[in-house]
Write a structure and sequence with these properties.
By secondary structure, the chain is of the alpha/beta class. It contains twelve helices and 19 strands. The strands form three sheets. Strands 1, 10, 11, 12, 13, 14, 15, 16 and 17 form a nine-stranded mixed sheet that branches.
């Protein structure tokens, strides 16, 4: 049986909000975000020192990060602005992690100054960071286990094609180099999947990392203080999909962890995670309005939103469920391509999607955009980035980011500025 999708706000609420803040805009559900965070912590409470390093790239807004900090989350960062966001909400020191990926000196310098954990992606980064920013107190390395065979019904990604992480021989050599340079604290990071609903890949990640921990201690005397299992936990984008059973996955990891704890060389490492999609993904909505209904070779429902506002369907072919406010009880009788106004043919939110009969002015809601939605918007065709709102626990809407204006769009262009809505040359 297909589970009916619910929305935490009404047509009347959106109509009222849209009178002062035109669509499109994003809405995040505070209660849902808090509940998902608490669920994660509860499921892994058996591991003393467990931490969630929420990846800021998933939902880069300080109000959201403040809620997550309030719930006990740390932050995973990839850039100077993301480090600034983490620092801005009051996270300090090792409650911040910089996950390195072709990283420049400015990120390394800032992370070192903040006392953040730095997760290195490349063996060459150890010498690079020593030269540009100074050696970190904690050496954390990202592992790519390489090729795997098909495991049961699960298919592993082609990890040898991934740009992330280092080989096992590189991993061990870099740890040894770190000890020679005087580093005494160590961590391990591994992430092999994205949007996984089975969870067995996550269990396998833990098993592989625990093996590395034992071998590293046995062969090099290096004890891993923590193991970051990464993220990749998925959410059910399609109505027929089931949510991952995090309790069962956690219990499987706990069983494996306890078995390894009996081994002489297992360091009983703390476990970290970076579960952006699992925490915020289900609790974000993009609200848009039907602008035109075009009947050509197909029926096209043209919105005031575009791929610039939500790139995942056009870029990846990703599915996002669509609700039509006020028409949720009506049967889906008409097939549409739901599109935006970009000069780009893959500017489509849905292809051949059966929906209730649509009319111009209908309000469309895209589900499950709380992670990697607003953070991936862009400005092709001069599209302006949308506003963001937080649905508070008391039912009120708090604006947490305003929509961009044409003045914002032109602000970084040298020698030009807008005056009374007209673009003029200034030099």
């Amino acid at each position: 049986m297909v589970k009916k999708r619910t929305i935490p706000f009404t047509l009347e609420q959106i109509q009222t909000l849209a009178r002062s803040h035109p669509t499109p805009f994003y809405i995040y559900d505070e209660e849902g975000i808090r509940n998902s965070t608490r669920s994660l912590f509860n499921n892994f409470s058996w591991n003393k020192g467990f931490k969630e390093y929420f990846p800021i790239k998933a939902t880069p807004n300080p109000e959201i990060l403040s809620i997550l900090k309030d719930e006990g989350c740390c932050a995973d960062c990839c850039s100077v602005p993301e480090l600034m966001l983490a620092e801005g909400v009051g996270l300090i020191g090792e409650s911040i992690m910089l996950t390195s990926n072709d990283t420049g000196p400015e990120e390394f310098k800032m992370a070192r100054k903040m006392g953040a954990i730095i997760n290195l992606d490349d063996p060459n980064h150890l010498a690079y960071i020593e030269k540009t920013a100074g050696l970190p107190k904690v050496l954390c390395l990202r592992y790519n286990p390489g090729p795997f065979k098909k495991k049961g019904k699960l298919t592993w990604r082609h990890l040898t094609d991934e740009k992330f992480g280092m080989r096992k021989d590189q991993l061990f050599e870099t740890y040894k180099q770190g000890t020679k340079k005087g580093i005494k604290r160590f961590g391990l990071h591994m992430m092999i999947m994205s949007n996984d609903l089975h969870g067995e890949h996550f269990v396998d990640t833990a098993r592989i990392c625990f093996d590395i921990a034992v071998e590293l201690n046995r062969k090099a005397g290096i004890k891993l203080e923590f193991i970051d299992l990464g993220g990749g936990i998925g959410i059910p984008y399609r109505p027929h999909q089931k949510s991952i059973d995090m309790r069962t996955i956690s219990n499987k990891i706990r069983t494996i962890y306890n078995r390894y704890s009996t081994k002489k060389d297992f360091p009983n490492s703390r476990l970290f995670m970076e579960s952006g999609r699992f925490i915020t993904g289900k609790h974000g909505y993009l609200v848009a309005k039907v602008r035109h209904i075009k009947k050509s070779y197909k029926n096209f429902a043209g919105l005031d939103a575009s791929m610039a506002d939500l790139m995942r369907p056009g870029m990846y072919g990703s599915y996002h469920h669509i609700s039509v406010l006020g028409k949720q009880s009506k049967d889906p009788t008409t097939i549409y391509d739901v599109v935006g106004s970009l000069c780009e043919n893959n500017d489509k939110f849905a292809i051949n999607r059966k929906l209730p009969l649509l009319d111009p002015g209908d309000i469309i809601v895209f589900h499950d955009v709380g992670a990697y939605g607003r953070g991936k918007v862009f400005d092709f065709n001069g599209k302006l980035r949308p506003a963001e709102f937080l649905l508070r626990n008391d039912g009120s809407f708090q604006q947490i980011r305003r929509a961009e204006t044409p003045q914002d769009y032109f602000r970084t262009i040298c020698g030009w500025k807008t005056q009374k809505g007209i673009l003029k040359r200034t030099s």
